[in-house]
């Protein structure tokens, strides 16, 4: 499809989120009943220690999850949630994706057809479509069947073009899908037809991250060689590019980015621990944030809402508040109005995911996930810990909020997805 076929309705203001399911799971639900069949003598290992060796990564000391999904046969790399229904979609090392029920943990649909690891899953903004992206270069699309049934889905189409899919993002309003590839290209498709709307070819390395701006009018992408590109979806040429030739933008490769809700500022994280603030209207670097350890990459960036009313408007005009998470185990909270560090949140290992609660009045609460096997809910206004979420026996590789932010769903390297109440 030519660039002119991109309808204006897809690149106007994004729609509001629909009503959210407010059902929760009783945290006291019993997942497994263990039968007491009497005491047994403990065996001694060759060193004379009772019980033998207990590798630390095989022990789960505490599990406060309210549901689990153990169906993957390998690491789970991706998880996402439906915008209104109690559904999660996960993808893993077993070349499979699943749609499953957050409330019961039941498998609803097996998403097949990939020939390599499924590294991305995403529901469209209206919840009618689900996309999976894989290391095999395929993007596969399923759609919901029936108006009142969110448990039945059918395969729609397969999109091809990328060499290896690094990430996928749906447009905030329309049925338009964006994907970044390790072959330096970025692809844009129209659904349900599956027609290619645009191929952006302006990068020099794997396209590690990207997204639509929240207003849906522009696209921001970045690559492992350190180039940031800003696009009009209707044009194959970027509106502007920033490269490491400008020493102010030398990040040893870009690993993460996010755009503020006003669609005016991008915050970019680098492989060497640097963070840059970019004005999307000016096309230039307007700030540098130094809080992460040198040589430790910034893996995730997330904007948060710490205020309401006039205070929120003033904060947004100044750029807002952003959180950056790195492999140094830190999540740094920054005030972009002053370019100063507000607080530092500490994990025991790399931070892999950050999300702020979407419910009104809850935007100051953020959930972080880490390879230290734990997720945590924090109050970003003060940097205080609200709740710890434990149950994984391996690193947490991804997470997503569901049920209007009432739960967080996590993807574990040990092959299990868990559901926790956020507060």
**How many strands?**
32
Low-confidence stretches: 1-56
CATH superfamily grouping: YVTN repeat-like/Quinoprotein amine dehydrogenase
Q: Identify the strand order in the major beta sheet.
A: 1-32-31-30
Q: What is the residue-averaged pLDDT? A: 87
**Any guess at the CATH architecture?**
7 Propeller
Approximately how much beta-strand content do the residues carry? Answer: 35-45%
Briefly note the structural class of the backbone.
Answer: mainly beta
Name of the CATH class: Mainly Beta
Largest sheet: 4 strands, antiparallel
Notes on the structure:
It is built from one helix and 32 strands. Helix content is 2%, strand content 43%. β8 and β9 (153-159) form a beta hairpin. It is an all-beta fold.
List key phrases describing it:
single chain; mainly beta; Methylamine Dehydrogenase, Chain H; four-stranded antiparallel beta sheet; 32 strands; WD40_repeat_CS; Quinoprotein_ADH-like_sf; WD40/YVTN_repeat-like_dom_sf; WD repeat
Provide a concise account of the structure shown.
The protein is an all-beta fold. The protein has one helix spanning 310-317, and strands spanning 67-69, 76-81, 87-92, 97-101, 107-111, 118-123, 129-134, 139-144, 153-159, 165-170, 176-181, 186-190, 195-200, 207-212, 219-223, 228-231, 240-242, 254-259, 265-270, 275-279, 284-289, 298-304, 321-326, 330-335, 340-346, 351-356, 365-370, 375-379, 384-389, 396-402, 407-412, 417-421. It has a four-stranded antiparallel β-sheet, with no helix packed on it. Strands 2-3-4-5 form a four-stranded antiparallel β-sheet, with no helix packed on it. A four-stranded antiparallel β-sheet has the order 6-7-8-9, with no helix packed on it.
């Amino acid at each position: 499809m030519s660039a002119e076929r991109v309808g204006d309705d897809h690149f106007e203001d994004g729609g509001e989120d629909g009503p959210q399911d407010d059902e929760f799971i009783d945290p006291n639900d019993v997942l497994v009943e263990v039968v007491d069949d009497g005491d047994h003598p403990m065996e001694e290992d060759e060193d004379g220690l009772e019980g033998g060796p207990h590798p630390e990564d095989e022990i789960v000391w505490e599990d406060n999850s309210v549901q689990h999904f153990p169906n993957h046969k390998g690491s789970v790399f991706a998880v996402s949630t439906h915008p209104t229904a109690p559904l999660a979609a996960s993808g893993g090392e077993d070349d499979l994706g699943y749609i499953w029920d957050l409330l019961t943990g039941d498998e609803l649909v097996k998403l097949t057809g990939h020939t390599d690891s499924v590294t991305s899953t995403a529901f469209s903004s209206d919840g009618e479509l689900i996309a999976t992206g894989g290391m095999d270069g395929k993007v596969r699309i399923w759609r919901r069947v029936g108006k009142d049934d969110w448990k039945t889905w059918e395969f729609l189409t397969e999109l091809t073009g990328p060499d290896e899919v690094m990430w996928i993002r749906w447009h905030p309003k329309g049925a338009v899908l964006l994907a970044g590839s390790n072959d330096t290209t970025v692809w844009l498709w129209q659904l349900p037809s599956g027609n290619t709307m645009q191929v952006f070819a302006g990068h020099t390395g794997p396209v590690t991250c990207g997204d639509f701006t929240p207003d849906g009018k522009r696209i921001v992408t970045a690559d492992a060689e350190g180039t940031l590109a800003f696009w009009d979806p209707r044009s194959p040429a970027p509106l502007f590019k920033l490269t490491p030739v400008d020493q102010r933008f030398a990040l040893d490769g870009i690993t993460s980015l996010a755009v503020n809700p006003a669609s005016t500022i991008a915050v970019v994280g680098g492989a060497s621990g640097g963070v840059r603030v970019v004005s999307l209207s000016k096309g230039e670097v307007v700030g540098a944030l130094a809080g992460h350890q040198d040589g430790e990459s910034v893996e995730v960036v997330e904007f948060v809402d710490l205020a309401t009313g006039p205070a929120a408007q003033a904060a947004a005009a100044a750029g807002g508040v952003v959180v950056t998470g790195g492999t140094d185990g830190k999540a740094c909270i920054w005030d972009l109005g002053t370019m100063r560090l507000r607080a530092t949140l500490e994990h025991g290992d790399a931070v892999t995911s950050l999300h702020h609660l979407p419910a009104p009045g809850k935007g100051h609460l953020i959930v972080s996930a880490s390879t230290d096997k734990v997720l945590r809910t924090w109050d970003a206004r003060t940097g205080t810990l609200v709740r710890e979420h434990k149950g994984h026996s391996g690193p947490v590789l991804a997470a997503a909020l569901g049920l209007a932010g009432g739960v967080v769903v996590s993807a574990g390297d040990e092959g299990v997805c868990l559901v926790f109440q956020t507060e």
